[in-house]
Amino acid sequence: MAPAPILDSIVDTIEPRKETLPLPEPARQRLLKAGIDLSKGYPYRPSVPLYLQDVYKIRDEERLYQDAGARADKSKKNLFSAATKVTDLTTHIGTEIEGLQLKDLTPQQRDELALLIAERSVVFFRNQDLTPQQQKELGEWFGEVEVHPQTPQVPGVPGVTVIWPDLFTLERPADFRRPGGASNWHSDLVHERQPAGITHLHNDTVPPTGGDTLWASGYSAYEKLSPEFRKIIDGKYAVYRSAHPYLDRQDPNAGPKYIERTHPLVRVHPATGWKALWVNRSMTVRIVGLDKAESDVILNYLYDVYEKNVDIQVRFKWTPGTSALWDNRSVIS
């Protein structure tokens, strides 16, 4: 049995205080229109896992996977011909599509959207009339929808996670030095056997000022490297750790530990065949086979390539009812 201070610390980390806030009206109206049951409170809080061994078992098997973008028409004629406007927001990353509703996409358009996301890394759709159920159904077209073991969820729609900064601030007070949440460069689920592909974030409520999100292209970060430097990192593996720590059931007195997995430092996207640098400062621990000093020098340089080259980044200002879909295999955010 872990001593009380350690156990209290880990529980506070993975199971925050369950305070409630009044729902913003745009969110309430969207949820009620979708038939979401709010009678038991919002959001739904799952019973979070406490032990490392239990989390390792989540989706801990190889799964056959065909990327939807790999079967798409390369011209994307079905998607582009139905849109009223398609705008590339920067040279390297980010595209906004107007005149389409995600809920109405045909199978061909969905595949072509997956390819566009793979190529442009992040794609935006404003003014979306989209229920959480429809959001999940679109996700199931792209692959297996992740049901997060410990984050708040839309009641009755497992796999649709709730992002609510005001609620998170109640649970873990933030300031400008420690903004909390997803304010640091990261990629989703790097600790899993098969890390995340496409993430779909829909914002029904946004602040009048602030709240912008940045993405950076892993393709372009890789291209920034010299050919000789690429030879150094091609084929190398790195260790990536989970965002949350857990207790080791075999040694709870040792305190919180992170899930760790090994993945390629440079990934090849299955739909494009393009190479992407796959590191982030928050979750990449070390390069396999190198001394710590060597690994630290290389990783810190690679982080800087991602974070300091603004030409490979896109900054997006949200408006209510906007969806962003991005590919965690080729981008950090």
Radius of gyration: 20 Å
The count of β-strands is 13
Chain-averaged pLDDT: 90
Low-confidence stretches: 1-12
- Give the distance, in angstroms, between the N- and C-terminal Cα atoms: 38 Å
Give a short account of the largest sheet. 5 strands, mixed
- Counted by DSSP, the helix tally is 10
Strand-residue proportion: 15-25%
Shape: globular
- Helix and strand succession? HHHHEEHEHHEEHHEEEEEHEEE
- Derived structural class: alpha+beta
Give helix % range: 25-40%
Biggest sheet, strands in spatial order?
1-2-3-12-4
Domain TauD/TfdA-like: 86-331
Family: Belongs to the TfdA dioxygenase family.
Cofactor: Fe(2+)
Protein name: TauD/TfdA-like domain-containing protein
Protein model, in words:
This protein is of the alpha+beta class. Helix content is 28%, strand content 19%. It is built from ten helices and 13 strands. The strands form four sheets. The chain has a five-stranded mixed beta sheet, covered by helices on one side. A three-stranded antiparallel beta sheet has the order 11-5-13. It has a three-stranded antiparallel beta sheet with strand order 7-6-10. The radius of gyration is 20 Å and the shape is globular. The two termini are 38 Å apart. The N terminus is likely disordered. Pfam families: TauD. This is TauD/TfdA-like domain-containing protein. It comes from Neurospora hispaniola.
Strand-helix topology:
Elements: H1 4-14, H2 25-33, H3 52-56, H4 77-82, E1 85-88, E2 95-98, H5 107-120, E3 122-125, H6 132-142, H7 165-171, E4 198-203, E5 213-217, H8 218-224, H9 227-233, E6 237-246, E7 257-264, E8 266-268, E9 275-277, E10 284-287, H10 292-308, E11 313-316, E12 322-327, E13 331-332
